[in-house]
Amino acid sequence: MKPLKITLTFLCIVCAVLTAPLPASGNPQAQFDRANRLYEEGKMSEALPLFTRLEKNVSNWKLFYNIGNCYFKLDQPVKAKIYFLKAQRLNPFEESIQKNIDIANKRLNDKIPYPKPDFISRLLLRIESVFPMNVVSIILLLFIVVFNAFVFLWIKKGKKRWIIYGVSFSLVLLLMAGIYTIYRADKYSQRSIAVITGENSQLRSGPGENNTVLFKVNPGLQVKIIDQSRDWIQVSASSDIAGWIETENVERI
What we know:
- The chain starts with a helix and ends with a strand.
- Helix content is 59%, strand content 13%.
- The protein is of the alpha+beta class and 253 residues long.
């Protein structure tokens, strides 16, 4: 059983690494608590640098939410909306985030009705909110261990029916978990939502300043990224508003 013990030991080490807290030297929780105290005291300009410093090492919806609140209180609704959307990407079903996005949209005079996800999209979002990426990775490693264990038993004990069933079932689970992990990793790397940040930005008919200006868009407009060509990206805000814009005038979520 030595190979199985080695595999189990490897799984325990990986799980410990994936679930381990951040190093104590940085003490991010203390920084977060201090920033929150400053925020509650109304010292937004002092709290904001502490929050943004944590952003380099922490990806948490509450952190992005608080950064958005700081920007909004400092009368920067575009930056506020960007961080509210970042928070919503990590926690799509938190009602307070959507409420603040709506408030920011009113400040920005953004009246475009953004489409709501369909049933399948909402189901996938619900699964993603329940199982973060580190948990998905642990589940994949667990299925790898189970599959290897059944293969080991097959080699040692022969083709018994229950072992064959175990190999087949664990292989199916492993393939499903692998495909879903690839899907999650690919989705996380593709930041397909962006916010217009440039003043007097224009959507053109093609990638380049020689193309016709189709629309003039205000900062804070949320757009979906469709394509990219060099320093230009094709975006869509609705079925009626779409075109090409320079990447320097948008910020990806």
